[in-house]
């Protein structure tokens, strides 16, 4: 069953993302409140996918991505951002991000991005909600 | 037409107030005798102003009803009451009323109070809307300005890591400068956001151990900068009242400055203490560092104003502006004395009792 780690400093965003992924049938194995915590959790949990918020204090999402990709080039990472900037998109792709999730989260497009990277969720875990 | 709700348990009084209001051209929505009924009507018809007796029929009194209304809607409440004792006035004050008229009152006073309440309520709503807008503006500034900075830093990093072999040393130096500038701007955005938060965050006053706070901060500075040897002296038992979070930001800035501006001083010293000025206690933070020209003391607190070059002492000129806002929000004063190469002293006051 595909597992996900969420890295986001904003509690509300963590909760929303968590509940969307959960009700679609993905297993959220961890949530981190900072880039540093995210890197720590990633190395112990080895999730199939990590979602990384771009705007975080201290260590921003790009730095997290660069570090994770350096440690393991097979990392599946999605960058979450509300600010659209083509150079940022290009930069993240060069560093190996698999895609972007635009904030505020929209279940349908978010799940289709996630599905493209790690495949369908476990159908037996799927909530009755249909996005 | 201004729609008024009159909450009054005595029918005759209610009718008399209502007829006065009508004479002034107000529409009287209803005259419920209890707080419970008043809440129902407020929910349904959203009056522009509520005149509230304090003694009411039903379980709730007028002050409780006003409290409830203030928490639910933006409707100004004016108390109309025969009570004028200190205890009632103190309770009524907490409900945040827009006026307090003691019966018997003059018709003209009723009119003036209603008009003032309407205007104040309108201004408060405007202010709240402006603050909300400012919040979302700060949020988008931080995100929209930062994204390109992340790209500038990241692409420079790629150049540095991947193409360094193609660049002469001066080219690499240019890249370093680009990354440095991007990081400076990132810090600047961060500091501006902190300044705007400090201006609007609610101030929650509690007891404050200034001595302990100062010692903790100085200890932290020493740990971050183990190569420096700074002698500091903090007066014991400095007590005040203030918002712990905001005061920590203020002291961190002041002590951080003292630390920074003594970096070229042999035998660097920082002193935290207090002195009496008339009836009030004045705290001070004194150092023997670079100081500043005395005639420029008033420029210190203006955002982005710097009296030293960034090469001499790094910084962006937002710290002291932040400190000043914090002290002013506590109703305190802050000023500074200094001489070139002869140290600086920052004086400030804080509330001496909890409101």
From TrEMBL, chain A:
Which positions fall inside the Response regulatory domain? Answer: 3-118
List residues modified as 4-aspartylphosphate: 53
Highest taxon, organism lineage: Archaea
Gene Ontology process terms (BP): phosphorelay signal transduction system
Q: Which PROSITE patterns match?
A: RESPONSE_REGULATORY
Q: What keywords were assigned to this record?
A: Phosphoprotein, Two-component regulatory system
Q: Name one Pfam family in it.
A: Response_reg
Protein name as it appears in the record:
Two-component system response regulator
Q: Which organism is it from?
A: Methanospirillum stamsii
Automatic annotation (TrEMBL), chain B:
Native organism taxonomy: Archaea, Methanobacteriati, Methanobacteriota, Stenosarchaea group, Methanomicrobia
Protein name per UniProt: histidine kinase
What Pfam family is a match for this entry?
Response_reg
Gene Ontology MF terms in the entry: phosphorelay response regulator activity; phosphorelay sensor kinase activity; protein kinase activator activity
User: Which Enzyme Commission number(s) are on file for it?
Assistant: 2.7.13.3
Q: Report the residue ranges that make up the Response regulatory domain in this protein.
A: 3-118
- SUPFAM superfamilies from the UniProt entry: ATPase domain of HSP90 chaperone/DNA topoisomerase II/histidine kinase, CheY-like
**Source organism of the structure:** Methanospirillum stamsii
Instruction: Please indicate if the UniProt record lists Lipid biosynthesis as a keyword.
Output: no
Q: Where is the Histidine kinase domain?
A: 140-354
PROSITE patterns in the record: HIS_KIN, RESPONSE_REGULATORY
Enumerate the catalysed reactions: ATP + protein L-histidine = ADP + protein N-phospho-L-histidine
Instruction: Report the coiled-coil segments.
Output: 113-140
């Amino acid at each position: 069953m595909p597992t996900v780690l969420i890295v986001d400093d904003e509690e509300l965003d963590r909760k929303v993302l968590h509940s969307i992924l959960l009700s679609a049938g993905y297993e959220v194995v961890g949530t981190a409140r900072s880039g540093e915590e995210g890197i720590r959790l990633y190395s112990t949990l080895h999730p199939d996918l990590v979602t990384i918020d771009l705007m975080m204090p201290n260590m921003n999402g790009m730095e997290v991505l660069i570090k994770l990709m350096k440690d393991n080039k097979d990392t599946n990472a999605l960058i979450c951002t509300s600010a659209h900037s083509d150079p940022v998109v290009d930069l993240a792709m060069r560093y190996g991000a698999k895609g972007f999730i635009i904030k505020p989260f929209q279940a349908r497009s978010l799940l289709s991005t996630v599905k493209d990277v790690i495949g369908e969720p476990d159908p037996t875990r799927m909530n009755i909600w249909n996005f | 037409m201004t729609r008024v709700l009159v909450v009054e348990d005595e029918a005759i009084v209610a009718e008399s107030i209502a007829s006065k209001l009508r004479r002034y051209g107000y529409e009287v929505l209803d005259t419920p005798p209890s707080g419970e009924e008043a809440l129902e009507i407020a929910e349904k018809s959203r009056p522009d102003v509520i005149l509230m007796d304090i003694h009411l029929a039903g379980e709730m009194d007028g002050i409780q009803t006003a409290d409830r209304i203030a928490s639910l809607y933006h409707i100004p409440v004016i108390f109309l009451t025969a009570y004028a004792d200190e205890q009632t006035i103190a309770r009524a004050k907490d409900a945040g009323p827009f006026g307090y008229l003691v019966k018997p009152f003059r018709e003209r006073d009723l009119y003036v109070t209603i008009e003032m309440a309407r205007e104040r309520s309108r201004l408060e709503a405007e202010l709240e809307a402006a603050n909300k807008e400012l919040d979302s503006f700060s949020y988008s500034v931080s995100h929209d300005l930062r994204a390109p900075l992340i790209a500038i830093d990241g692409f420079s990093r790629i150049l540095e890591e991947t193409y360094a072999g193609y660049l002469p040393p001066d080219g690499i130096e240019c890249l370093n400068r680009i990354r440095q500038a991007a990081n400076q701007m990132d810090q600047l955005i961060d500091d501006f956001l902190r300044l705007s938060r400090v201006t609007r965050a609610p101030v929650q006053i509690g007891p404050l151990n200034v001595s302990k706070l100062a010692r903790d901060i100085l200890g932290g500075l020493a740990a971050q900068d183990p190569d420096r040897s700074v002698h500091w002296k903090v007066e014991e038992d400095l007590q005040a009242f203030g918002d712990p979070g905001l005061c920590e930001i203020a002291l961190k800035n002041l002590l951080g400055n003292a630390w920074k501006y003594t970096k070229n001083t042999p035998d660097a010293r920082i002193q935290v203490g207090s002195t009496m000025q008339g009836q009030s206690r004045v705290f001070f933070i004194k150092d023997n560092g670079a100081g500043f020209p005395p005639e420029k003391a008033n420029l210190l607190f203006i955002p982005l104003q710097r009296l030293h070059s960034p090469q001499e002492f790094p910084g962006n000129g937002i710290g002291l502006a932040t400190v000043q806002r914090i002290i002013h929000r506590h109703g305190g004063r802050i000023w500074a004395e200094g001489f070139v190469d002869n140290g600086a002293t920052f004086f400030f006051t804080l509330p001496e009792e909890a409101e």
